[in-house]
Amino acid sequence: MTTNHEAHPKADAEDVDEKQGDKVGQALNDERFQMLADIAKELTGTVVFPTYFDAAFHLRQELHDPALPTARIARIVSLEPLVATKLMRLANSAYYRRRNNQVIDLKAAITRLGIDVVRTTALAIAMGQLMRSKDLVAFNDFTHALWEHSIKTASATRILAHTYTRINPDEALLAGLVHDLGAFYMLYRAVQYPELRARPDTLKHLILQWHESIGVTLLNALGMPDEIVQATIDHDQPRAAPAMVRTLSEIVYVGNILAGTDFEWLRQNFDPDVGESGLVRQNFADLLPEIEADAQEMLTLFT
Hints:
303 residues; Hypothetical protein af1432; 63% helix; 0% strand; globular; disordered N terminus
């Protein structure tokens, strides 16, 4: 970005680190706000993600009709070999496998999993590929922590829905998976700004402040179901620790905490067992071993 030196006459003296030769102070602030402005502009038009992410959402759109015949779904999915392979592995995983019967073809895998899981799996694979993108190597530790947190939250939301409510566990899994999609998107966009790429702590601060609102706008722009979008709103905002979950929003809030803390992937030294987070973890402590085991299996399947 070109800095306006007329607007900031002391920019050369104050905004350039002589030792490092890069921007600080007002010039760095300008770059932060430029990224936010660029994101806001993009979200009002065509959202740009990597090609494989576009493919995942295209696949979701093609599978929008829940009445599609299984054979038709299998033909569509077979065009994405990585998705097809992961679906086979998922169908034969401990969570979905029944009576030790192993599925040996894609059509049988889709029948076992259902169309909602097929669509969510495509998205999970795209998120996993984004996490491993060479463009994000500067944020490698951060992206891996965010990916693991998203998977663990998805496991928690699925188990919470199944255990305590009549909400579709696969719908809850999707909500948990995408609850921090705004953070993924901000990371992807940040690599285009050299000063932010060189300062991961500055980027973490921006994500902490903006990922929720950007995520909601992004999910709407991508055509996510409204109930999923609504469930992600204010998921990181502290509230009284619920002793029970009834709504999808409560499931996402609690699942996010059970996955670590509300800001696990930003504040690695934060103790998850104190305050309201600690109360939530106490209230649902019986589920923690199951969530941990399920998350590890999901990481193996999707990574």
